[in-house]
């Protein structure tokens, strides 16, 4: 039976689109510590994939992308292995539980509440890094297991039930503590996500098998992510902490405002959403510009002091 050239062309376009989405999502995730799952899952849902299969597809692709990302971050010195162990293992437990026993529960009610908390953390991160730069009061102090373990458990559960959430929950919480510099926060979150992706994938296979999972889509997302992983790890190494903190803060704010505006609590119309998004983009761009300007000014002062 001959293949219809039109169907073949459409299929190839879809795979190329998925690969580009995987590349873009991993570039953002590896640079800012979040957004791979949210971006990829949103696309899969938009083309009609059921939520469980979409999340399973993304997590299968993430096994490869997070392994490559973790290796790249390790090579560039962006990983704190103590943090990876303390948050990654509880994260895997939460992801497996969410994928098997609890994935049928609706997170629609919990999502707006969590978004409010994360929005507050995002505002803190944006203001703190933009105004004062890298917080140094607590920098270098150890992150306790009693803080990281519950954080990992919640982030892993949200990640598997919502198709994304490991980075958006974990990254701002650790950044807000001021105990770990941004590049190591992002590198450690990305590396520990490998454990979460494996646990969630096992959980989905236990719960739903491979029903609805398109392994060609998995490979397409994976291919794009593998290309982006080392580039993102290199970027994190070279972006100044102050600028990186402002960038992450803006992503956190935009992501969670979007969730709130789409929730049943608000259910805002497009006429309300887009002006709010526009305002956030303007403020975010101004914060980034100020952070860059202040970084350059401080660098010039340091160089002048060294030459005296």
From TrEMBL:
Location relative to the cell: Cell membrane; Membrane
Transmembrane regions listed in the UniProt entry: 83-103, 109-127, 215-236, 243-262, 274-292
CC per GO annotation: plasma membrane
Keywords: Cell membrane, Membrane, Transmembrane, Transmembrane helix
Keyword S-adenosyl-L-methionine applies: no
Signal sequence interval, chain numbering: none
Membrane-topology annotation of the record: Multi-pass membrane protein
Family: Belongs to the 4-toluene sulfonate uptake permease (TSUP) (TC 2.A.102) family.
Record-given protein name: Probable membrane transporter protein
């Amino acid at each position: 039976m001959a293949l219809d050239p039109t169907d073949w062309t459409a299929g190839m376009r879809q795979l190329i689109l998925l690969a580009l989405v995987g590349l873009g999502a991993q570039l953002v995730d590896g640079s800012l510590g979040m957004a791979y799952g949210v971006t990829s899952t949103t696309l899969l849902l938009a083309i009609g994939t059921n939520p469980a299969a979409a999340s399973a597809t993304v997590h299968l692709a993430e096994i490869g992308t997070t392994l490559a990302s973790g290796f790249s971050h390790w090579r560039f010195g962006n990983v704190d292995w103590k943090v990876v162990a303390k948050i990654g293992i509880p994260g895997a437990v939460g992801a497996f539980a969410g994928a098997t026993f609890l994935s049928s529960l609706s997170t629609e009610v919990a999502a707006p509440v969590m978004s409010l908390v994360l929005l507050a953390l995002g505002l803190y991160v944006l203001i703190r890094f933009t105004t004062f730069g890298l917080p140094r009061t607590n920098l270098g102090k150890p992150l306790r297991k009693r803080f990281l373990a519950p954080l990992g458990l919640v982030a892993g559960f949200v990640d598997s039930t919502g198709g994304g959430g490991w980075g958006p929950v974990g990254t701002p919480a650790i950044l807000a503590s001021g105990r770990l510099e941004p590049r190591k926060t992002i590198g450690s979150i990305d590396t520990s996500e490998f454990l979460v992706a494996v646990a969630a994938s096992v959980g989905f296979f236990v719960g739903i098998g491979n029903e609805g999972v398109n392994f060609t889509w998995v490979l397409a997302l994976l291919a794009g992510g593998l290309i982006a992983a080392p580039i993102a790890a290199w970027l994190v190494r070279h972006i100044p902490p102050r600028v990186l903190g402002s960038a992450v803060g803006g992503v956190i704010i935009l992501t969670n405002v979007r969730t709130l505006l789409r929730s049943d609590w608000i259910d805002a119309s497009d006429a309300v959403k887009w002006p709010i998004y526009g305002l956030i983009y303007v403020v975010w761009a101004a914060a980034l510009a100020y952070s860059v300007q202040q970084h350059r000014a401080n660098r010039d002062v340091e160089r002048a002091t060294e030459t005296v």
